[in-house]
Amino acid sequence: MDIPDTPAIPAEALTGLLDGRWAHVRAEARARMAERGLPDTADLTTEDYRAVVLTELRELAHSGYPRIGFPPEHGGGGDPGGALTAFEMLGFGDLSVMVKAGVQWGLFGGAIEALGTQRHHDRYLRPLMDLEVAGCFAMTETGHGSDVQSLRTTATFDGDGFVVRTPDDSARKDYIGNAARDGRLAVVFAQLVVGDVSHGVHALVVPIRDEDGNPMPGVRIEDCGPKAGLNGVDNGRIWFDDVRVPRDALLDRYGRVDADGTYHSPIEGDGKRFFTMLGTLIRGRISVAGAAGSAAKKALAIAVRYGDTRRQFPHPDSGDEVVVLDYLAQQRKLLPALATTYALHFAQEELVSTLHDLPEDADRRELESRAAGLKAIGTWHTTRTVQVCREACGGAGYLMENQLPRLKADTDVFTTFEGDNTVLLQLVAKGLLTGYRQYIGERGMGRVIADQFVATVIERTAARSVIERLVNAVTPRDEETDLLDRGWHLKVFEDREKHVLDTLARRLRRAADPDADAFEVFNSAQDHVLRAARVHVDRIVLEAFVAALDRNPSPLLNRVCDLYVLANLEADLDWFLGHGRFTTARAKAVTGAVNALCRALRPHARTLVDAFAIPDALITAPIAHGDRQGTQSGATMTGSRSGEESRKAVAR
Amino acid sequence: MDIPDTPAIPAEALTGLLDGRWAHVRAEARARMAERGLPDTADLTTEDYRAVVLTELRELAHSGYPRIGFPPEHGGGGDPGGALTAFEMLGFGDLSVMVKAGVQWGLFGGAIEALGTQRHHDRYLRPLMDLEVAGCFAMTETGHGSDVQSLRTTATFDGDGFVVRTPDDSARKDYIGNAARDGRLAVVFAQLVVGDVSHGVHALVVPIRDEDGNPMPGVRIEDCGPKAGLNGVDNGRIWFDDVRVPRDALLDRYGRVDADGTYHSPIEGDGKRFFTMLGTLIRGRISVAGAAGSAAKKALAIAVRYGDTRRQFPHPDSGDEVVVLDYLAQQRKLLPALATTYALHFAQEELVSTLHDLPEDADRRELESRAAGLKAIGTWHTTRTVQVCREACGGAGYLMENQLPRLKADTDVFTTFEGDNTVLLQLVAKGLLTGYRQYIGERGMGRVIADQFVATVIERTAARSVIERLVNAVTPRDEETDLLDRGWHLKVFEDREKHVLDTLARRLRRAADPDADAFEVFNSAQDHVLRAARVHVDRIVLEAFVAALDRNPSPLLNRVCDLYVLANLEADLDWFLGHGRFTTARAKAVTGAVNALCRALRPHARTLVDAFAIPDALITAPIAHGDRQGTQSGATMTGSRSGEESRKAVAR
Questions:
Q1: Region entry Disordered: which residue ranges (chains A, B) (predicted)?
Q2: Which residues pair with A636 in a beta bridge?
C-alpha cells in the first residue's frame, strides 16, 4: 500500500488544533511552567522532596490557578473545564505536584464542594483554594479499595455529633495523600450510623492535625513509606479511635441528621445515594486521564526526538549510519502509540467539554461511564507507551537524567488508583448492559437492528451528524472499501461494539436461569465484559477524533487518525477474523497499511511531538536535545599524566 | 470446555522437577541466601547502596561461589552450567548484587578467560575470582551500543605496546558497570590498529585506577548518575586519553601482535573474528535471561499469594467477600504469565545444559542464537509479568515494602542491555534465514517439505524422538484434534515457524533484484523478521517443556504446559486465523480453553509459586504473608487524648 505524501506543516499549526476550547488555559499553564521549570529533586530525601512539592503547591495557590474550577461566589473562576485542562497541563511537570494538587483541590476541595452545603462552602472553600488548609480525601481503607461501598469505618450519631471509629487495622484509611505530613483536615468516608440503623457511606470533615501539625486526639497517622514513584506526595494511613466531631461536620448535601437524630436524604436507597455521591467525584478520574495523556506526550517527545537523531548500523549502500527512527521496528514502537495519544487527546477534550456544559441536574450516567472508560484505556496506554519509549531509548532511557524512569515510576499507579482499571471497565460494561436491557425490554428480543442499537444503546457522543453522514456513505461490501475510508472505520468500530455487547447480553441472560450459578455465569464471562467496555471506549475515542477533524480539517491529522484506527484494528485482528468481519486478505492488508502509515508519518514524527508544545524547561533529558554526550550527572574523576594527586570534581 | 481436576501435590514435589540437573547448586544458593537475607537498602544514598552491594559481593567471593564456573587449573570449579544456575538463583535476591556479580565474574572474568591466553589467566583469574581486583567490561560506547562492530575507541600499536584513545565524546565508554567506583581494571574493546591497518575490534586489559582508587593517568571517569533501578551498581563513563599499555595487555586468543608489529589471528576476516569473540561472551545473555526468570517468579509469588488472600466485593449469594484470585480477570492476569514462566524455566535449564555439554570446538551458532532469542523473549516476559503483578496488587503493589516496585525498576533494563531485544531477535532471524538458504541451496526452490524443513532448518533442540512420536501421532485433521493434544501443540508451533520463515525468505529474495532497494526490502519486512524469531523461540520453549514432562511426568505440570500453549496460541490468534490455520470455531475454542485452564489451575496457584522455593527471607513483602495491615514502614504519629505532646516514633 502506498500512501501519498502529506505536506509538512509547522508544529504550531497543529498545536492550535490540539489546544482547542481551553487554549487560553493551556497557554497560561505553559508560560507559568516554562518560567517555573521543574523542581530539582534529583538528590532529595523523601522528606525534602515532599517539602519541595509543598512549595510548588504554594506557588500554584499563589498564582490563583486552583481557583479556576471553584464557584465564583467563593472567589473561584467557575470554569470546571478550565480546571480539568489545567490539571492535564500539570501532567507535563513533576507528577508529584500534579497528584498533590489533585488531592488538595480535586479530591478534598471537590468533595467539600460537591458533597457539602453552604455552611461547608463558606467555611472551607476559600482557605483550601489558597492552601491555608491542606486536606485529605480519606476514602480507601486497607481492606477496601475498589469496593468502597463496603468500607468499615463508622460515624455514629451520639445525640449531639458523630463519633468516628476505625474498628480494626483492615479498616484504617490507607494510601491517603496529604496524610503523612501536611493534611490538617480529612474528608472521611464512613458508614453513617444513627441508632441501630446504618445509612451507608457518607463523608465528614474531620480535623486530623492541630495548628502545630500534631495529630489530633484519637487520631493515629502512619507514613505509607517509600513508593515506586510520586514520592513527593505524603501518603499515609489514618486510624480514628472514637474521634468526636460536631453534627455539622457531616457533608450533608445527600444526607443529613437532625438534632433529634432523624435522618433525611433527597435520595431513596443507600446504594443509589452512594453512587450519586461517588458520581460527583468524577473529576478525579478525568484529571488522572488527562495527566496520563500529558505524561505519554512527554515520553513520546523524548523518544521521538532521540530516535530522530540517534544513528546505529551502517546503511548497506551508503555506509552512513541509519537514523534509528528510519527503521520500521522503531516506527512501530513509537508511531502507533503517538497516533493513539492524539486520539485520546481529542476524546479527553470532548469529555471535559461535555462535563463543563452539563446542566447541574442532568443525567450524568453516560458521562461517568465515559470518564471511567477513558481513564482505564488512557492510563493503560500511558503505562505501555512510557515503557516502549524507555526501551526505544536503550540504556540512555534507563538513566534518570533522561526523565523516562521517573515518568514510568510516577505514572504506574495511575492504572489502579482513582478506580482500578479492570473494575472501571466492568462498570462501563454494566452501564452498557443496562442500556441494552432497557432497549430490549422496550422492543422485545429478536434481531436487534444495528443502527437503532447504536442510536439508542451506545449513544454517539460526538458530532452525530458528521459521523452518520460518513457511515452512510460507505458501500456495503466491506472488502472493497478503501482501508483508509473514515466511514468504514466508524462502521467497523460500531459493528464491533454492537456485536460484542449483543453476544455478551445473550450470554449473561443465562444467569437468570433458576439452575444457574449467577456468579459463575458472570465470572466466566469476565474477559468478554472487559472487551465490551474496551471496544465501546475505542468507538468513543474514534468519534471524538473524527469530530475534531470535522471542526478543523488537517491532512496530517487525518493520517494520524488513520494510523490510530488501523493500529487498533490490527491489535484486534483475531476478533475481526474470528467473527468473519475480515477475510484473511483484508487482515494482511491492515498490517500492510499500518506499515505504510508508519512510513508516511515518519517524516512528520518530530512535528507531531513538537505540536504538544511542552515547554523546553520541562524536557530536561539530554537525549531529547541531540546531546549524545549526556550531561555531567555525577562525580567526574580525572587521572593526571603528571602524576599529581588526581582531582575529584563534582559537576553541577 | 471442562477440564478434569488435577490432584493437589505438595510444592516440594514440583520443586524437585524444577530444580533439575543443578539441584545441588540451587540448594546451596537457597541456603546461603536464606541465611544472608536481603541487604537492607531502604533508605540508603546511592553511595551507601553501592557500598552495601560491594560488601555482598565480597561475601559471595568469600563463599567461593564465583569459582564454580572457572577452570579447575586456576582454582575454579570447572562447572559452567553450575555457574549459570547460580546466577539465576541470584535473581531471587537484590538484583544490583546479581548485576554487579555478573559484571565482575561473568563479563570481566568471562572476557579474560575466553579472550585471553595462559598469561592472562595466570595473572588475573585467581585475583578476580576472589574480588581482589574488580574489573569492568568496557565495550559499549555512547555512540555505539547495539552496533559494537563500529566502536571508535582505538588501540594503536606503537612499536612496543598499545596506545588506547577515545577520539571524541561519542566514543567514550558508557554505562560501564564497576566503572564509577570500584573497578581497577577494564577489559577495553577497541579497534586494533597496527601501522595503517585496522584489524577490527579486540579487547585489552587496561588499568583504570591505581591502588588508592584514583584514576590512572590519561583515564577520565564519570558517574552515569542515578538510574531507574540497579542503583547499587556503579555504572560510569570512561575516556582514554592516549593511555599506554604493554603489548601483553592484548587479550590475544583470537589475534596477537608480535614485537615486530606482525598481526596474527587463527581466524581470517575481521568480521568473522569479531563474531567469534562476541560468541564467547554468550554467558552474559544466558545469565540475564536466568535472572529475569527468577525476578518473574518472585513477582508472581508475591502477587499470587496476595491474590489468594485478598478479598473484594461480596459474593452475590453468600455475601462473603470473594477472594480476588477467584475472579477470572485476576486469573487471566497471573496464570498464563505463571505458565509461561514455567515454560521459560525449562527452556533456560536446557540451554544451560547444552552450553555445559558443548565441546570446546563445536559449532556454537545454534547455541548463540538460542541464547539471544531466549534472552529477548524471557526479559520481555519479565517486564510484562512484573507489571501485571504490580497492577494485580493495586495500591499495595505500588509500595516499596511490597517489593514489586524495585523488581520492576531493576529488571526494566534487561530488555535492552546485553543486547537490545529487538536487535537480538533480528540476529536470531538472520541465523534462521542462513539455515534456510543453505537448505534451499542444496535442494533447489519449490515446495519445501515441512518435515524435512524442521529436521534440517529449524533443528529440534530437545528430546527429538519424543517430540517426533507425539507429532506423528496427531491426526491430520486439525479441527478434530483435542485442543489439549500435545502432539497437535507441537505440530502447530512447528507449522507456524515454518510458514513464517518460508514466507519471509521468499519476501526477502526480492532484495536480490537488481532494481531493488535492498535496505528498503529488509526494512519493510522488519515486523515479519521479528515474528519469525519469536515463533522460533516459542517452538524451542515448548519443546523444552515437553522434554521436561517426558523426563518427569506430572499431571499438574502437564496442565501448566497446556496453559502455556493455549495462551500462546490465543495471543497469536490473528495469525492462525489469518493464515487459515484455525476456523473461527477453533479460535473461539482456544479462548474458552484458556479460561477453562485458568479455572483448573486456580486451586494450584499457590503450589505453583511455592514450588519456586524462594527463601522466605527474600520475600519480605507484607502482602505476600497474609498481612493486610502492612508494616510500620515510616514515621508513626499518634495524637493523645490527654493532650500531652504527641509522640513521633520512627518504626523499624
A1: 625-652
A2: A649, B222
Q: How much is the average pLDDT of B168-172?
A: 97
Q: Is some CB atom of chain A closer than 8 A to the CB atom of B329?
A: yes
User: Using only C-alpha atoms, what is the Rg of chain B?
Assistant: 26
A/B interface, count of CB pairs below 8 Å: 310
* Of A234-238, A418-422, A480-484, B297-301, the least confident: A480-484
What is the spatial distance between Cα A397 and Cα A403, in angstroms, rounded to a whole number? 8
ipTM of the complex: 0.94
List of residues 6+ apart from B580 with CB closer than 8 A? A584
Q: What is the pLDDT of residues B282-333, one digit of tens each?
A: 999 999 999 999 999 999 999 999 999 999 999 988 899 999 999 999 999 9
Q: Which residues of B439-463 are buried (b: 16+ CB within 10 A; e: fewer)?
A: bbeeeeeeebeeeebbeebbebbbb
Any chain B CB within 8 A of the CB of A411? no
| Cross-strand partners of A399 | B227
User: For position B466, what pLDDT does the model report?
Assistant: 84
Cβ atoms within 10 Å, residue B648: 11
* DSSP, res A155: E
- How is domain B281-463+470-623 classified at the CATH fold level? Butyryl-CoA Dehydrogenase, subunit A; domain 3 (1.20.140)
Min CA distance, A324 vs chain B (Å)? 11
The stretch B245-265 carries a mean pLDDT of 96
Mutation target for A interface from B103, B391, B521: give the one with most A CBs within 10 A. Answer: B391
Percent of chain A at pLDDT above 70? 92
For chain A, give every domain's residue range: 13-129, 281-418
Task: Identify which of A96, A102, A89 has the alpha carbon closest to the alpha carbon of residue A53.
Answer: A96
Is A13-129 a domain of CATH 1.10.540.10?
A: yes
**Chain-chain contact of A226 with B399 (C-beta, under 8 angstroms):** yes
pLDDT over 60 (residue A92): yes
Hey, are the CB atoms on B383 and A387 less than 8 Å from each other? yes
Nearest Cα neighbor of B262 from B329, B192, B318, B189 is B192
Is A518 in contact with B317 (Cβ distance < 8 A)?
Answer: yes
Residue B194, C-beta contacts closer than 8 angstroms, at least 6 positions apart: B156, B157, B257, B261, B263
Measured between CA atoms, how close is B620 to chain A, in angstroms? 15
pLDDT of residue A466: 84
What is the structure's pLDDT at A625?
92
Q: Is the pLDDT of residue A98 over 90?
A: yes
Chain A nearest-CA distance from B414, in A, is 10
- What is the pLDDT, as a whole number, of residue B443? 61
Q: Do A174 and B526 touch (CB under 8 A)?
A: no
Decide if A591 and B527 are in contact by the 8 Å CB cutoff: yes
CA-nearest of A508, A507, A572 to A534 is A572
What is chain A's alpha carbon radius of gyration, rounded to the nearest angstrom? 26
CATH code, residues B135-271: 2.40.110.10
pLDDT tens-digit profile of B432-442? 998 888 776 66
Is 0.90 topped by the overall pTM? yes
A584-613 residues touching B, CB cutoff 8 A: 584, 587-588, 591, 595, 599
A 530-569 residues inside an 8 A Cβ radius of B: 530
| Contacting residues of B for A328, CB less than 8 Å apart | 523-524, 526-527
Confidence band, pLDDT 50/70/90 cuts, at residue A481: confident
**Fold (CATH) for A281-418:** Butyryl-CoA Dehydrogenase, subunit A; domain 3 (1.20.140)
B10–A contact, CB cutoff 8 A: no
Enumerate the β-bridge partners of residue B236. B176, B223
